[in-house]
Amino acid sequence: MVLMGTLVNAACIIVGTLLGKIFHRIPEKIKETVMFGIGLAVIVLGLQMGFKSKEFLIVILSLVFGGVLGEWWDLDAKLNGVGDWLEGKIGGKTAGEQSISQGFVTATLIFLIGAMAIIGALDSGIRGDHDVLYTKAVIDGFTALVLATTLGIGVVFSAIPVLLYQGLIAIFANQINEVVPKELMDSFIMEMTSAGGIMIFAIGLNLIGLTKIRVANLLPGILITAVLVTILYFIPITI
Fold this sequence. Notes:
Layout: H1 4-22, H2 28-50, H3 56-73, H4 75-90, H5 100-112, H6 115-127, H7 131-151, H8 159-171, H9 173-179, H10 182-207, H11 220-234
Organism: Peribacillus deserti
Keywords: Membrane, Transmembrane, Transmembrane helix
InterPro entries: DUF554
């Protein structure tokens, strides 16, 4: 089944969030320390991913032009709008809990930005091999558990964009594999991982309260990365 890995991934996020909600009634001081711990771990993960690039100028240009597009389209406000709509449907946050918007947006960005989502979905669609997505599912499940203890039930709704994003890649994997040369795909994944790592680094800074970066507005940088890598593949330029 082409979507098995994606379905398991979404299910683990849901289960992890529900388990995390069980532990949400912990002292605020512990929640604060846990949040700082999560933020620091996310920062380190982002740094590790950020150093993957072989053509860092591509990453810089992707973030710059992606940020311009993101601000133009106001993606951050739109994502938060979805979270606010969900909050209105299921009720407001409880005392000491973050808004549903924050949990939804933060978790969605963490679960979607990265190479495992693309590589795993392609493996599922082309070879019926779900091992990468199963591994991602376990990681995302534990991450959702920890995030839910501080960010609340909003984390569970990140399973929806994960299902749509990875599911579409898996469904069209064979067509993507036929059209995109392996060398080009490998290059894109490498540079996308680096650009995504910087976004994840920014999420970590937001989590520990140092910044309020509108990370969702940087997401078009992934599209810009694909465009630049493709141009350089067909028209080699030394940068």
